[in-house]
Amino acid sequence: MGDVDKRRYKRYTVDGLSGQLTYAINARVLNMSMEGMAVETNRLLNVDKKYIIRLGNGMDTVELEGTIVWSNLIKTEHQSTGDVVPVFKSGIKFEGLLTEKAEKLLRFIDKNRVLKLEHRLHGRFRIDSQPAQIGYPHDYTIKKLSLSGMLIETDTTFDPGIMLEFSLTLDNEVKIITRGRVVNTRRDEESGRYSIGVEFINLSDSNREILSEYLKGII
User: Fold this and answer.
1) Rg of the Cα atoms in the chain
2) How many CA atoms lie within 13 A of 19 on its CB side?
3) Which terminus, N or C, of the chain has the lesser number of Cβ atoms within 10 Å?
C-alpha cells in the first residue's frame, strides 16, 4: 500500500474477515424490458454469471442483479489513440426484481425510452443514451487492514491504478462499503491466488470511525 500508508497508519494483521469487490465497466444499453436488457461493452461478459447493473445516476440510479444469458463479439472499433478495441453484445436476464425495484425500473424505462411505451410490462424498447455500469462481484479475504487501505487475497488479479468498489463485514457484523485503488498485486505461485494492496478512496467519516473503533479492539 506504499511507504506513505505505512508511515501514516499502522496495518493490523486480521483473520477471518472477508468481503466482495466489484470492478465496474461502462456499458451502452441497446434495449430493455422488465425481464432483461441488451448491452454493448468492450469486455466479454461471462455467460451464466450474475452481474450487478447500475443504470442512471444521482437520484435516478437503479441498481439490479442479472444473469448473462448470451454474449458475442460483434465488431471492433478504432479509437483516437490508434488502439483497436472489441465490442461485445450481451443479453441479460434480471434476477430478483422485487416490487420496489420493478417500479423504479419501470419509471427509468418510461423516462428514457425512445419509442412510445404501448405494452408497459412485456415490450422491449430502445433506450435513450444513459450512463450504465456492469460489475461482477469477486470474493476476497483480508490479510492486513488499516485506516487507509488493506491487503487482500483473491482469485482474480487487477492492474495497479484500477478503481474497485468494496464491501467488507467486520466481526461485529457491521458492513463497510467504500471505493479503493489497486496499488500493487502479486501472485502466489504455490496457491495461484493474488495478494493485492488497496488504498481506500474517499472513505466516509462514519466508516472511518467504525473502522477505527474496530482496529482499536484488536490491538
Assistant:
1) 20
2) 24
3) C
Q: Per residue in 27-73, pLDDT tens?
A: 999 888 878 889 999 988 999 999 999 888 766 788 889 999 999 99
Of 83-92, 109-118, 137-146, 182-191, give the lowest mean pLDDT range: 109-118
Which of 134, 165, 191 is the endpoint of a domain?
Answer: 134
Q: How far apart are CA 159 and CA 22, in angstroms?
A: 14
| Element holding 4 (H helix, E strand) | helix 3-8
Task: Give alpha helix (H) positions in 14-119.
Answer: 99-112
Range of the domain at 98: 25-134
Instruction: Judge if 64 and 151 occupy the same domain.
Output: no
What is the domain count for the chain?
A: 2
pLDDT at 101: 75
Report pLDDT digits (tens) over 144-197: 999 999 999 999 899 999 999 999 988 767 889 999 999 999 999 888 999 999
Task: Give the Cα separation of 11 and 113 in Å (integer).
Answer: 50
CATH (domain of 30): 2.40.10
Domain boundary among 118, 134, 150: 134
Biggest distance spanned by C-alpha atoms of the chain: 62
| CB within 8 Å of 152: residues ≥ 6 apart | 21, 140, 141, 142, 143, 195, 196, 198
